[in-house]
Structures are given as C-alpha cells and as structure tokens.
Amino acid sequence: MADEIHTTREADGTTHTTTVVEREPRRGGGITLIVIVALAVAAFLGFQFLGNEKAETGAVTEAAQQVGDAAQKVGDAAQEAVK
Questions:
Q1: Residue 57 and residue 49: Cα distance in Å, rounded?
Q2: Exposure winner among 42, 47, 73, 81, fewest CB in 10 A?
Q3: Domain ranges of the chain
C-alpha cells in the first residue's frame, strides 16, 4: 500500500493538497460463495429428510391399517365360532 500526497501551490499563494490512498482489493467473495453453497446443501438435505419422513409416515399408516383389518377379521371369525 502506497499513499501519495500531492501539494499544488497556485500563483496567488493558495495551496491545494491531494492525497491518493491505494488499498488492497477485498477478498470476501470466496467465503460468500462457500456460505451460499453450504446453505444450498443444507436446504437440499432438509427437504430430502422431510420427504423420507412423509414416506415413512405413509408406510406406518398403511401397516397400521392392515393390522386393524386383520384384527377385525379375527374378531369376526371368533364371533362366528361362538354361534
């Protein structure tokens, strides 16, 4: 980094000072990209988890329904056997 100071003296005796400051370019773009990619991956995995949970809930519901139907059939058969 180099700072430059330029002083100009006018004919009437007034002076003007100009300072030039050179700065390093910012390098935050890489970190921003990493954060965006991490958020995208987290969102993708979150939606996958929710999708799997819905499928699992549906399978459990169907199995419970089948158990309930089987229990009903056993109950009907038991009533027929008592008659």
A1: 12
A2: 81
A3: 3-82
The 10s digit of each residue's pLDDT in 34-75 is 888 899 998 888 888 777 777 778 788 888 888 888 888 888
In sequence order, what are the beta bridge partners of 2?
none
d(CA 41, CA 35) in angstroms, rounded, equals: 10
pTM beyond 0.90: no
What DSSP assignment string belongs to the chain? --EEEEEEE-TTS-EEEEEEE--PPP--HHHHHHHHHHHHHHHHHHHHHHHHHHHHHHHHHHHHHHHHHHHHHHHHHHHHHH-
Q: Beta strand pairing status for 3-9 and 15-21?
A: antiparallel
- Secondary structure (3-state) at 5: strand
